[in-house]
Amino acid sequence: MYVLFEGIDTCGKSTQIELISQKHPEIIVTHEPGGTAFGQKAREILLSDSLASKRAELLLFLADRAEHYQEVISPNQDKVIISDRGFLSGIGYALANGDFDFDELVSLNRFALEGHFPDKVILFLTDMKTLEERTSVKCLDGIELRGLEYLLKVQEHMKESILKLGIPHLFVDATEDIETIHTHITDYLRNTL
Ligand SMILES: Nc1ncnc2c1ncn2[C@@H]1O[C@H](COP(=O)(O)OP(=O)(O)OP(=O)(O)O)[C@@H](O)[C@H]1O
Ligand SMILES: Cc1cn([C@H]2C[C@H](O)[C@@H](COP(=O)(O)O)O2)c(=O)[nH]c1=O
């Protein structure tokens, strides 16, 4: 069972994954970009926002995804895997970056994932006020420095994309308190965890 936690920067994905993994140490917890040795090198390049070409950026995220699928997801399909980000970030950020076609992005991601999209997606939805509060107290990476309007545009693309794809999903109000969100997620994953 492959479960994806998705949402824009600082929406609270890692906080919730940590709470679940404390209670369920048997779960495989992973992340993109950077869940493999190659991915760690790719992450360094990607988060510095140093590539001039948005196509090159997209392809490097996809290379990370393909390696992550082969090395982490595929060998653990009999277990519960929770990934902090994955293909939905791949589509949402790419659409916000400009001139990419949704269907083409879905095909590229299907290729990277060997046809295996996640079984469930938990998408955190935040707002400008919360985003301002949380980003103002952290050191921002190159992608976060593109600005809060950009991140909210990514969020809209992620929401529209998951609705179009029809993959089972839960929308989480990221502005609620940590314990309330944890309850919503564990209720949704009751038959999975
Ligand atoms: N529900 C919440 N209420 C208040 N603060 C929260 C909540 N969830 C997370 N936070 C705080 O917001 C910050 C960002 O949370 P977290 O690192 O979990 O987000 P993230 O989605 O994993 O971010 P990123 O994608 O940027 O790594 C942290 O300081 C965390 O303690
Ligand atoms: C998988 C993926 C990620 N991104 C962006 C989203 C974030 O800004 C960073 C990852 O940072 P985090 O601390 O691990 O959340 O990368 C993207 O643009 N495209 C993708 O496919």
Automatic annotation (TrEMBL):
<keyword id="KW-0418">Kinase</keyword>
<dbReference type="InterPro" id="IPR027417">
    <property type="entry name" value="P-loop_NTPase"/>
</dbReference>
<keyword id="KW-0547">Nucleotide-binding</keyword>
<keyword id="KW-0545">Nucleotide biosynthesis</keyword>
<dbReference type="InterPro" id="IPR018094">
    <property type="entry name" value="Thymidylate_kinase"/>
</dbReference>
<dbReference type="InterPro" id="IPR039430">
    <property type="entry name" value="Thymidylate_kin-like_dom"/>
</dbReference>
<comment type="similarity">
    <text>Belongs to the thymidylate kinase family.</text>
</comment>
<protein>
    <recommendedName>
        <fullName>Thymidylate kinase</fullName>
        <ecNumber>2.7.4.9</ecNumber>
    </recommendedName>
</protein>
<keyword id="KW-0808">Transferase</keyword>
<dbReference type="GO" id="GO:0004798">
    <property type="term" value="F:dTMP kinase activity"/>
</dbReference>
<feature type="binding site">
    <location>
        <begin position="7"/>
        <end position="14"/>
    </location>
    <ligand>
        <name>ATP</name>
    </ligand>
</feature>
<dbReference type="Pfam" id="PF02223">
    <property type="entry name" value="Thymidylate_kin"/>
</dbReference>
<keyword id="KW-0067">ATP-binding</keyword>
<comment type="function">
    <text>Phosphorylation of dTMP to form dTDP in both de novo and salvage pathways of dTTP synthesis.</text>
</comment>
<feature type="domain" description="Thymidylate kinase-like">
    <location>
        <begin position="5"/>
        <end position="185"/>
    </location>
</feature>
